[in-house]
Amino acid sequence: MTTTSLNETHDPALKSWLASANVPGCDFPIQNLPFAVFRRSGKDEAWRGGVAIGDQVLDMAKAGRIGEMTGIFSDAAALPAEAAGKDSLNALMDMGPAAWSALRLALSRGLREGSGARHVLSHCLVPQAEVEYTVPARIGDYTDFYTSVYHASNIGRQFRPDNPLLPNYKWVPIGYHGRVSSIDVSGQSFARPKGQLMPPGATAPTLAPCKRLDYELELGVFIGGSLAPGDGLPITEAENHVFGIVLLNDWSARDIQAWEYQPLGPFLSKNFASTISPWIVTMEALAPYRTPFTRPDGDPQPLPYLESADNRAAGGIDIQLDTFIETPKMREQGHQPKPITHTSYRHAYWTVAQIVTHHAVNGCNLQSGDLLGTGTLSGPTASEAGALIELTVGGKQPVQLSNGEQRAFLDDGDAIVLRGWCEKAGAARIGFGECRGTVVPAR
């Protein structure tokens, strides 16, 4: 099986015995079955793994114990079901695609209409409205890439109008090593970062709170299946080492970044906070939404190690992405967050398989639970820009909000909400939930 193969778990006609999973527009129908780590809010409970179905969480710690006794999770699904109930998903991630697929099939059969497991699994459900989440895996390392040619061009144009893309961009997947300890799950609040700022015309920098705080609309790729140092990884095997995908907001302090980034790249401008959505949507769940990977005419084609027939045929993924802003004034007035951008991951210049392969080509090891960011995902039009620095052309053209407010960059109290989903005729709609983060005043 490959991560682009369709099977019975993708059947759009499947319904669950849980009614909320069958509601049109639901993020978590039976065709999705993403994983998270949760506990009931306000309870002195251990964290444990869960699976989203409708508006509920299937408690995998409880379901795994009961399933072992009743045979719901037998044979190839037994050990993955046990691993899925632990306080992090690293053990499950390390088991590889055959185990992930076996567990997905067992869950699908147990949760679908007419299943004899209903009377057992119904006692393992917890309402999502009553739970809190933590980061779903122990993240050993975090690398952020730069996979959107539109984002790279938009940013480059602000500094190099005549030559926005650097010569290496279309040849090599660009990335940098980020910080793990400040990655948190949706709901994160963080203090406005401080750093050295060099105001225009000044002769010396000052230490001050960031004045140009930005969001970055990204996806996060969780590695599954470790890779030893020196091994490398053919592109044809790269997705066997990808467990799934989350939404990612890699917050950025643009004014700190402008002063510090040469010669070694981002540092204090990036390491203060990154927010991910709690639910990991598996690569198998995304199979119906794979798209061809193509390069524009005249662009260089990938070097052979970044090239394969499968990657050309289905290396892309059509994940729809929205960004919303919620200001303090909106909250006071009871207004919902306002959309400010919409785009799709299908516009990425480098695929998941390519960034994983490139990461390992120099002999770098990979560990289950490692996180790779896609970098800001912008589309070909101005309304598809994935960061305020693009939407506002470096702050010169503030975004006008429907309540009369405007933003060039983020104010204290502002929240950014990312949402993602896949939808097309002939396939079940699946979603990622939301990724929410809020900036509070500098300390």
Structure, explained:
This protein has eleven helices and 26 strands. With 443 residues, the chain is of the alpha+beta class. The protein has two domains: 8-134, Fumarylacetoacetase, N-terminal domain (SH3 type barrels, Roll); 142-440, Fumarylacetoacetate hydrolase, domain 2 (Alpha-Beta Complex), CATH 3.90.850. The chain starts with 34 loop residues before the first strand and ends with a strand.
Characteristics:
443 residues, alpha+beta, SH3 type barrels, 2 domains, 5-stranded antiparallel sheet, 11 helices, globular
Name of the CATH first level of the largest domain: Alpha Beta
Q: What's the CATH architecture name of the largest domain?
A: Alpha-Beta Complex
- Report the structural category: alpha+beta
Overall number of structural domains: 2
Proportion in helices: 10-25%
Whole-number average pLDDT?
96
Rounded to the nearest angstrom, the distance between the terminal CA atoms is 51 Å
Counting DSSP H or I runs of 4 or more residues, the number of helices is 11
In the CATH hierarchy, what is the superfamily of the largest domain?
Fumarylacetoacetase-like, C-terminal domain
What is the fold named in CATH at topology level of the largest domain?
Fumarylacetoacetate hydrolase, domain 2
Largest sheet: 8 strands, mixed
Taking Cα atoms only, what radius of gyration do you get, to the nearest Å?
A: 22 Å
Question: What fraction of the residues are assigned to beta strands by DSSP?
Answer: 25-35%
Total E-strand runs = 26
Q: Provide the low-confidence segments as ranges.
A: none
Q: What coarse outline follows from CA principal-axis ratios?
A: globular
